[in-house]
Amino acid sequence: MTGRPRTDRAAVITGLGGWLPPRVVTNDDLAAHLDTSDEWIRSRTGIARRHVVDPGTGTATLAVEAGAAALKSAGGGDVDSVIVATTTPDRPCPATAPQVAARLGLGAVAAHDVSAVCTGFVYGLATAVGQIAAGIADRVLVIGAEAFSTIVNPRDRHTAVIFADGAGAVVVRAGAPDEPGAVGPCVLGSDGDLADLITVPAGGSAQRSTGRPAPPEDHYFQMRGRDVYRHAVERTTAAAQTALDRAGWRAADVDRLMPHQANARICAAVAERLGIGPDRQASNIERVGNTAAASIPLLMVDAAAEGSLAPGDRVLLAAFGGGATWGATTLTWPVLPAV
Predict the structure, then answer these.
(1) Disulfide check for 285: which of 40, 178, 221, 261 has CB 3.0–4.6 Å away?
(2) Tally of CA atoms within 13 A in the half-sphere of 87 that contains its CB
(3) According to the UniProt record, where is the region ACP-binding (predicted)?
(4) Contact (Cβ atoms closer than 8 angstroms) between residue 259 and residue 267
């Protein structure tokens, strides 16, 4: 599915915030109990360290911290809607977003979750675009938040070394399509035939309805790495190129490619296919790992804070995740308060 706002009301980014739990796990920490090493992890993923939640900390806590920072960046005030993109809700039922809205003191606003795994933030941003274009909302808080360490098998070196926890958020407001910060054409897609590519097999209605207990490993995240690499590169590149075409941009116009931080090799392959050089690629995977739905907003926070993302920069966002899902969009970076 592809689409763009059908009115002159665009969703304009006006606030940005992120939060990482304070506990840091290095590659050497993982090598102490896994058959791996710092060199093995770095060479295959580009990751050196990651943040993980302490016991008892759920996704809502991360989302509240990031949401509060984004609201402060946007100058405070209320929003009409809260969207939380996550694969790790605090509970299967109810959604996490209403709790986040309540803890942020936002009152009885609309609030719901989006489940698209690593594409979740792009899907959530596109949902906010639709709400604003339709006149349903004037201001929307979009949060990508994950406590992914809680669903990763700590004994699986292929996933435990990659995934991490954190949250990033943006506030978008109604504005004009030609304003800096206006979200451009959104390109979204999915392929349910690839559902087993990235999955937690147990815990849902399909497994529960059997009446039989699932093997312990089926309660953890599972991923077919080689297949994920191929589909992620192909689908992310195609979605990004479509977003560029619909925005009337060329790859040469892009100042910053900001892909989901899945794996350093995937990001590099996508950039190469698009013709975007290393000097125009944003990356923070080395120090935060793969934070799934939180990845892109956390990347924006880091790039803005370190000065590699400046007002007026043309930005391309793109992601691939479980479902399988993928998505991309464009924007010209606005002037925002320091984050």
Answers:
(1) 261
(2) 32
(3) 261-265
(4) yes
Query: Across the strands, what pairs with 51?
Result: 24
Which pTM does this prediction carry? 0.96
**Angle 179-175-310 (CA atoms, 0-180°, nearest 5)?**
35
| Distance from C-alpha of 108 to C-alpha of 97, rounded to nearest angstrom | 12
Q: Is-catalytic flag, 186?
A: no
Task: Assess contact for 295 and 118: CB atoms under 8 A.
Answer: yes
Say which residue the tokens 């892009």 belong to. Answer: 254
| Active site (annotated) includes residue 112 | no
Q: Which amino acid is at 201?
A: P
Candidates 27, 51, 186, 260; catalytic one: 260
Q: Name the active-site residue from 51, 118, 186, 263.
A: 118
Burial of 140 (0-12, 13-18, 19+ CB in 10 A): buried
Amino acid identity at 93: C
Return per-residue pLDDT of the chain as tens, 339 residues: 444 444 689 999 999 999 999 999 999 999 999 999 999 999 999 999 999 999 999 999 999 999 999 999 999 999 999 999 999 999 999 999 999 999 999 999 999 999 999 999 999 999 999 999 999 999 999 999 999 999 999 999 999 999 999 999 999 999 999 999 999 999 999 999 999 999 999 999 999 999 999 999 999 999 999 999 999 999 999 999 999 999 999 999 999 999 999 999 999 999 999 999 999 999 999 999 999 999 999 999 999 999 999 999 999 999 999 999 999 999 999 999 866
Fold of 186-332: Peroxisomal Thiolase; Chain A, domain 1 (3.40.47)
Residues 338 and 100: their CA atoms lie apart, in Å, by 24
Delimiting residues of CATH 3.40.47.10 domain(s) in the chain: 2-175, 186-332
